[in-house]
Specification:
- It is a single chain.
- This protein is α+β, with helices and mostly antiparallel strands and 182 residues long.
- The protein has 2 domains: 72 residues, Alpha-Beta Plaits; 103 residues, 2-Layer Sandwich (Alpha-Beta Plaits), CATH 3.30.70.
- Helix 4 crosses helix 5.
Length: 182
Amino acid sequence: MSTAIGSVELNSIASGIVTGDQMLKTASVDLVMAQPTCPGKYVILVAGETADVSTSVRAGIETGADKVVDSMILSNIDPQVISAITRTTEIDQSEAVGIIETFSLCASIQAADCAVKTANVELIEVRLGRGLGGKSYVILTGTVADVKSACDAVTANFGREGMLLNVEVVSSLHPDMFRALL
């Protein structure tokens, strides 16, 4: 059994609510998030078995029709990604912090999954478009080498798609700045 995550992002809040309802009624998936994001968009994230997530996302695309601006299905997602989206991770400060900033919610989720599958890093947060003008970001931590490796992999895999805005690695982040991230 593999855990997958699926997302449908719409440019209408009203259509987003209707779409989310249909996605949950169509397949046996768990709702991870359904909420408005900036600038006036609505995002639905579901998790479950890959076949169910695929069915749910297809129903979302069909229901949302011309209001859909992006969608994705990511199979075999690392469990850290879902915890970081829901902000349920507990992290102690380590050697380095990586920040990955993207232009879309889907790109941020994919970048987070790529990072944790590439190197021994822990996700602090995957912030999805809330109060960010439609952008999203990932914050991760680990050794300097692991954080750099994870960020390099994200840049190599997503930089060419135009959805990656910026990637930064900070070693020995000041403890006050680290606490501000939590």
